[in-house]
Amino acid sequence: MQTSALAPDQLADIMFGAVYLFVGLVAGSFAVVRRGQGMRLFAWLGLWSAMFGTRLMTESPAVVAALPGWLQRATPLIGVSIIYMLLPVPALAWLELSRDKLRPFLQMVIAVSSLVGFSGIAVFLWTGSKYRLLILNNILSAVALLVLISVILLPRLCRKYLVLPNRTVVVVGVLFFALEGLYFNLSRVFHYQTVLLTGSLALGVLLFSLGYVAMQIFLANEHRLRSIEDELAIAREIQSSILPNGSPKRKDLTVASAYRPMTAVAGDFYEFITLDDNRMGVLVADVTGHGVPAALIAAMIKVAMQSVIGCADNPSRVLGELNRILSPQIGAQLVSAAYLVLDPERGAASYSAAGHPPLLRFGRGKLERVESNGLPLGVLPEPEYPVCELRIEQGDRLLLYTDGVVEPENAKGEAFGDRKLGETIHRNCAKPPSEFVEELLGEIRRWRPDSLEQQDDITIVVIDVMTYGGAKPDAQAPKNQLSKAAAQGEVRE
User: Fold this and answer.
1) Closest among 229, 164, 218, 291 to 37, alpha carbons compared
2) Using one digit for the tens of pLDDT, what is the confidence trace for 342-360?
3) SS3 state of residue 282
4) Is-contact 407 415, C-beta < 8 A?
5) Would strands 268-274 and 280-287 be described as parallel, antiparallel, or unpaired?
6) CA distance 77 to 82
């Protein structure tokens, strides 16, 4: 007779336990798959539901009897652990919805209840007593619930301390849960027989209300992310429009370039400036940082370059004017830049840089690093930018690049560096610039582990000198020019 009377309650426990466990697993899986902002709330709600469902099922003798022997022996420990930890997990869920002074309160609740919970589990393992510290947990639960109810029911406090897209749904869920708790406790005081089904339903209503809020937050985040992606797509199109549309087509120079942003938009910038029929300028710049802020400054460089086009034949003046224009606008950001002027007709080039990686020149089987650096743009109001004058000959290859080329690291933490860059240049010296650029990008990709994404923006400009010397310069010119370069900058192998 007694078994027959208990059968409906056991059936209800099994049914509700299975539902809560299933819902918890679904919510947890959703949080793991999607990850990202707002998913922790789904994770804590899922764990809360799964713990309650497990507790209901392990309290059913029929379920326990069907378990393997080792799991039957562990059932009391599982039940006690869930009882003691059912406060920290909901508090963690509420923490995801809280702000301002409510957060420290909930963090205190989590810390104290966790300490009580682990102590209660330890006491059970040591003495076998299940509920010796449970009174502390119940008091803490009552205090936390009272504070949450007060905050939720008062609109002013709710707006200040909670992030709730739909307050009404949460109010209904919390009130239903609180009234059920009041009903259960009063029934025990006055010795009324309670309907056990109400406890499971009350928690279900509360979890549903919080799950509804979590879904609203998730959908709002998704909408915001789509808006950001749309804006980034527009920003990417705008940035593409300020970059060169292909490489210059010249008989005396063969030019190839590559631009690989780390994110949708980048802080790297390059531009080709046609000075006259014989001369061409090349600017490469790298803004510190990544993403939209760096891309905005890169766009400013484009505008600033148009305003200094009148002195574009003088690398020192170009960098100085860019520094003067950009310094008041870029705040704490810095910009490294390199500017090269080529005159293949005269077999001459002039180069200056602002905190930028060196210009590389490969010719006659030798690789030279040309360094003529001043401070990055934005450091001082009027820095000096020395100019290095170079002789260029047919067959010379010139390489301008940003530090995203040499900084990638392999699985051992070793940077690609100047050595690998030099090896790649030597090994592919016979390939045309366009093929060399692709080979260099491939070497960088192979150097970086597959699990590691690109860590910096990459810009490469390669220039091959095809013809020079229409004016037949004096035989001593190269020596004199290199002596001048040694005085003003640095050329080294």
Assistant:
1) 218
2) 999 999 999 999 999 999 9
3) strand
4) yes
5) antiparallel
6) 9
